[in-house]
């Protein structure tokens, strides 16, 4: 682990499984409570000097970006080993993390003089919060860690990062690599099970919890942060609808729709998780998606010709299998795929489910895997009502040849990001977050940076 700028070994360890084999590939440190205390203390000690030197922070973030660009393949291999995604995607994730660091290195820290007259000068500035506890999930371990630490560090905070126990290795490596460019204590990386996350949220030192994960855990985090009013940003689950309008060309949009649903094997918070297709086009939409699914190359992410790796972990693999089997038992038709692939590891066929409706768990819940239900609708208002009729509100998309009409419908979606004729288009400058149970606050852009600051008013009397 990285604590106070030094490599620290834990007394206990836990196994990290390669999802392509189902076997333990490495062991990761299981931090003790004392080690978490040490990480928090180191972060607190590093804070005063770090927050004062903005130029040094920008320089360090740029240097961090360069390190990730230079070592993207090496870190990408670690990511593939523990997460399962193909090496090209893993390497791109590391490069993406570098792009985010670079963006934040150059982002202006907003401040505004709101009054300057004979009597007073009043300035509104954004000050850092102190120590930030960052907790991340297993689908994009490296990128989502950097979504937190780049803006947190730019704003002048120091960070204690805890990755998911399913994917700790890439974050451990990140801590190790960045020791070269960040002062001791500015970024600490600790690993362990879920209890370590709970210890962090209840810990007295952090003033902010930046959390990405499931709705259920997000609610626990919010409750744990409440007693001492820690600030929270919660990036939680989604159940994104894609609504196809009656003027859509199924063949023309199929590849993009499929990509929006199956990127990272469907293990994306804001992937398309249910498709609503008009009755007249229903058969064509199902066929076009099924064709995409059948052509997808699934296998060990270390192999060059592979597009989709295994599901990341056994509980998730079992859950996806259960949701698909339950839908089929309830009358759904697997137009492509439909079950696990018979080989070691957590491989599952890219699955398109037809003749399925709201009320089935695979439609109502977040499946977070390579199985996509396609639902028939006859009335657009009814489709919108069904799309909005859940506790989720992360993102959604509307697809049609008349893009203006599609944009009007998209504005009716109750979610943080509404895409038109695309899905999963994200950038460092574009705020991203969910409404309803999908989250609190946003990440990215100036708005994301605000989340790692408090407003301070500097009111100077001139009289
Ligand atoms: P999870 O909630 O099980 O775990 C997320 C992290 O929280 C892990 O590091 C875990 O160890 C930690 N944790 C567990 N219990 C905790 C507790 N009581 N207190 C503090 N931390 C605790 O989620 P997951 O299964 O790793 O990730 C999948 C979920 O994440 C999906 O629902 C997905 O939609 C969501 N997600 C959301 C976004 C987003 O930006 N909105 C991005 C990626 C993933």
From TrEMBL:
Belongs to the aldehyde dehydrogenase family. It comes from Actinomadura rubrisoli. InterPro entries: Ald_DH/histidinol_DH, Ald_DH_C, Ald_DH_CS_CYS, Ald_DH_CS_GLU, Ald_DH_N, Aldehyde_DH_dom, LUC3-like. The keyword Oxidoreductase applies. The active site is at residue 235. It holds the Pfam family Aldedh. This is Aldehyde dehydrogenase family protein. Residues 12-457 form the Aldehyde dehydrogenase domain. Keywords: Oxidoreductase. GO terms for molecular function: oxidoreductase activity, acting on the aldehyde or oxo group of donors, NAD or NADP as acceptor. The keyword Oxidoreductase applies.
């Amino acid at each position: 682990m990285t604590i106070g700028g030094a490599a620290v070994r834990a007394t206990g360890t836990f196994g990290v499984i390669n999802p392509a084999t189902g076997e333990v590939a490495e062991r990761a440190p299981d931090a003790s409570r004392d080690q978490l205390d040490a990480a928090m203390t180191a972060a607190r000690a590093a804070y005063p000097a770090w927050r004062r030197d903005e130029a040094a922070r920008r320089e360090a973030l740029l240097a961090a970006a360069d390190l990730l660009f230079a070592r993207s393949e090496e870190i990408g291999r670690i990511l593939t080993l523990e997460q399962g995604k193909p090496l090209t995607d893993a390497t791109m994730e590391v490069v993406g993390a570098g792009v985010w660091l670079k963006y934040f290195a150059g982002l202006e820290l907003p401040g505004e003089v709101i009054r300057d007259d004979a009597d007073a000068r009043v300035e509104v500035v954004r000050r850092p919060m102190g120590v930030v506890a960052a907790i991340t999930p297993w689908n994009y371990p490296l990128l989502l860690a950097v979504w937190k630490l780049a803006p947190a560090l730019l704003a002048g905070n120091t960070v204690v990062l805890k990755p998911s126990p399913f994917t700790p290795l890439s974050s451990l490596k990140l801590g190790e690599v960045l020791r070269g460019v960040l002062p001791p204590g500015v970024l600490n990386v600790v690993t362990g099970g879920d209890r370590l996350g709970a210890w962090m949220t209840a810990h007295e030192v952090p003033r902010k919890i930046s959390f990405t994960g499931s709705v259920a855990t997000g609610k626990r985090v919010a409750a744990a942060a409440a007693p001492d009013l820690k600030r929270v940003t919660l990036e939680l689950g989604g159940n994104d609808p894609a609504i196809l309008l009656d003027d859509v060309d199924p063949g023309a949009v199929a590849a993009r729709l499929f990509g929006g649903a199956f990127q990272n094997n469907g293990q994306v918070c804001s992937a398309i998780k249910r498709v609503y297709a008009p009755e007249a086009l229903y058969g064509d939409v199902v066929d076009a998606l099924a064709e995409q699914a059948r052509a997808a190359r699934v296998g060990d992410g270390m192999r060059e010709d592979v597009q989709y790796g295994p599901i990341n972990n056994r509980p998730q693999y079992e859950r996806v299998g259960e949701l698909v089997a339950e839908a089929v038992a309830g009358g759904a038709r697997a137009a492509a795929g439909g079950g696990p692939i018979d080989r070691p590891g957590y491989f599952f066929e890219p699955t398109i489910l037809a003749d399925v409706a709201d009320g089935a768990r695979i439609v109502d819940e977040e499946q977070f895997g390579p199985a996509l239900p396609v639902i028939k609708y006859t009335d657009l208002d009814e489709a919108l009502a069904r799309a909005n009729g859940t506790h989720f509100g992360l993102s959604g998309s509307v697809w049609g040849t008349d893009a203006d009409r599609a944009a009007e419908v998209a504005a009716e979606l109750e979610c943080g990001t509404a895409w038109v004729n695309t899905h999963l288009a994200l950038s460092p400058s574009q705020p991203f977050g969910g409404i309803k149970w999908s989250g609190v606050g946003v990440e990215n852009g100036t708005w994301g940076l605000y989340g790692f600051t408090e407003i301070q008013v500097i009111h100077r009397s001139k009289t």
